[in-house]
Specification:
five-stranded antiparallel beta sheet; 13 strands; 176 residues; 40% strand
């Protein structure tokens, strides 16, 4: 199932899953389903991060489309449309993320999240273009008050275990 959001092109994806007494099997990707929905059918890089509870990663908008999902735990996903000329530029969408729920993030839409489960979360990124140093894109501080993001767990902006120096020093959206 694919659902639209308040950001043009940002989609919530609930892939097929089958549960029995042994557990659950979830499809992370099926070529035919993505092709039918008009989504990328080739991923060139996959990253898996583990992030401690309360820590924030992002907001980053690379020149690559991403399919994100969780392999473990829960997270609070935040997306900011930073694309010049987009009809939804400046819009913010938030999603409660858990295993079995994915988000398709178009190139130029900033992706960020906060791990919310006590054991942290494992966050999977599938990129349609390989990440390279100096790749075009934008970063916005996740603590920009003008964005109105209500992170579920308070963050000390000086605590590097919860927020990187790079993300803390990123510009506000208005400064882009």
């Amino acid at each position: 199932m694919i659902e639209s959001t308040t950001i043009d092109g940002l989609l919530l994806v609930t892939p097929k899953s089958v549960t029995d007494d042994r557990g659950t099997v979830r499809e992370l990707f099926r070529h035919s389903a993505f092709a039918e929905a008009g989504l990328p059918t080739r991923w060139n890089q996959l990253n898996l991060t583990w992030t401690r509870q309360g820590a924030i990663r992002g907001l980053h908008g690379e020149a690559a489309s991403k399919l994100i999902g969780l392999a473990g735990g829960t997270a609070y996903g935040v997306y900011l449309d930073a694309r010049p000329g987009s009809p939804t530029r400046g819009a913010v969408a938030t999603v409660e993320l858990s295993v079995g729920r994915q988000v398709f993030v178009p190139a130029g839409v900033c992706n960020g999240f906060q791990a919310t489960s006590p054991e942290g979360c494992e966050y999977l990124y599938c990129f349609d273009t390989e990440w390279t140093p100096g790749m075009p894109g934008v970063a916005v501080t996740p603590l920009d008050p003008a964005l109105g993001i209500s992170w579920p767990i308070p963050v000390d902006p000086d605590n590097r275990a919860l927020l990187s120096a790079k993300d803390a020093a990123a510009p506000t959206f208005a400064e882009l």
